[in-house]
Amino acid sequence: MTLIVAGERSGVGKTTVTLALLASLNRQRQVQSFKVGPDYIDPMFHEAVTGRSCRNLDPVLTSEQYVQQCFARHSATADLSLIEGVMGLFDGAGDSDWASTAHIARLLAVPILLVIDCSHLSRSVAAIVHGYRSFDPRLRLAGVVLNRVASDRHLEVLKGALAPLNLPVLGVLHRNAGIKIPDRHLGLVPTDELQGMEKIVTQLADVGDQCFDWERLMPLLMSPKKTLDAKPKPLQAKERRVRVAIAKDPAFNFYYPDNLELLEQSGAELVFWSPLKDSALPADIQGMYLGGGFPEMFAAALAENEQARQSVKAAVQAGLPTYAECGGLMYLCESLQDLEGQTYPMVGVLPTTVSMGAKLTLGYRQATVQQNTPLLSKGVQVWGHEFHHSQLSQTSAHPIYDLSGYGASTLSAREGWSLFNLHASYVHLHWGVHPEIPQRFVHQAEQQSGL
């Protein structure tokens, strides 16, 4: 079995609690982590702590069955598993709790470790915990973690208020825990950009050793795993037939590990390169994948590497099957205006410029494909996710997607660029329930190269 770490709301410290648990456990055992939702950055921290790829559990981008299969397959390869939730316990997509932490807890039949921000609470903590425990009787609340406790006296009051609920306090973190992970416009600063990550992991492990009731926690983590109805499917990698260049550096690092694995299983050899440091694309490639990331934070360095920009432009214009997602799309524009208002030249394949702004575009998108691309056929519908502060100066005359929002959302837009043999869009896709996407991409690469 496992635990799912939930917050009573966003910002209560569930990521810090999760990382401290993972770091402490990882000192003696192999731990597989999972993250509810479409997030890329929190899973980077999980991987930095455990040394294993964190897996996203998102039934909107995939399906309930895929969530079950993914959890069963990857938790079976480790001694222990731990899931980090998303937002508040019952906060889901649209106007329901679909894709919420509570939804995943029910789907996987795992108990909940509820993190409470106690910085502005005393006895009221009991009313909050009672409400969360009773709101959905299908859920099992295993215990609580009291975060940002001010003093021993404060802790005494909190525990006294919680005592009548007969719910264990499984962790206590004081305000001066000494761990600070910097953040910015799209969340935490990614691990690739942090100095002294090893020191942070050690601090997290020390906090984990000292701040949790391991005598009560370990039986919860070590319990026999419930057999899920969805059996894990064996994954078979095919013979490598094409080489696909994957942009991977601090500017481009938003990739679902499932996507990269599915590419490999479809017959691709992944060749990693850096648009920041490498002077050209890798030799003898038949496809290119430019993932999301933070090109706005590295715009000057990307612009300075003119040889790489020209190499990418020539390859795209020559018809190399290319997939560019969010940050990758930004890189392909004529220019990028960063957060300080400075403008830098980019690749110049797309006849538009991109600039950073205060407005945040965020949410799940149902995308109906309007034309054939290297990834998708016209008429196909897929679910994706947008999360960006940038805007393009103009839209494509022949957009890839007709977008609508999730649930009650009134969003309606057309988006995406398809030039040469390029699929470029702000929409992030998870290919878990669409293995035909990487298969089509590999097939396009084979055709282009004459294999």
UniProtKB/TrEMBL annotation:
Pathway: Cofactor biosynthesis; adenosylcobalamin biosynthesis; cob(II)yrinate a,c-diamide from sirohydrochlorin (anaerobic route): step 10/10. Belongs to the CobB/CbiA family. Gene3D superfamilies: 3.40.50.880, P-loop containing nucleotide triphosphate hydrolases. Residues 3-186 form the CobQ/CobB/MinD/ParA nucleotide binding domain. Pfam families: CbiA, GATase_3. The record marks 428 as: Increases nucleophilicity of active site Cys. One of its GO terms (biological process) is cobalamin biosynthetic process. The keyword ATP-binding applies. Its cofactor is Mg(2+). Residues 243-432 form the CobB/CobQ-like glutamine amidotransferase domain. The lineage of its organism: Bacteria, Bacillati, Cyanobacteriota, Cyanophyceae, Acaryochloridales. This is Cobyrinate a,c-diamide synthase. It catalyses: cob(II)yrinate + 2 L-glutamine + 2 ATP + 2 H2O = cob(II)yrinate a,c diamide + 2 L-glutamate + 2 ADP + 2 phosphate + 2 H(+). It comes from the Bacteria. The active site is at residue 326.
